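Sharing a chain and its predicted structure for anyone who wants a worked example. Both blocks are below, sequence first, tokens second.
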Amino acid sequence: MNNRYIIPANSKKSQLILGFFTPVDLVLFGTGITITLALLIFIRDVNVGLMLLILAPTLITGFLVLPIANYHNVLQFIVNVYTFYSNKRRYVWRGWYLNGEK
């Protein structure tokens, strides 16, 4: 093919489960669902506020694994923002200017 092989734009997507999720994403979401189901089984008397607290693990983990554009999901975006602001940023000038020459 004369070294003209073009990689399709969605080649990484085929490595994901259902085209969206990594195994870590599914474990995280499954843990949230399991905690919510356990709370629904053990807590009987509920009102609206308590029901929102019971559903919180599923809602939070579902939000974290929600796919967004230009990132894998919200969790990856949060990790990228954290590493950007927590790491030291030092930009070294590498331009055309030479010291001592005019």
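Comments welcome. The radius of gyration is 23 Å.
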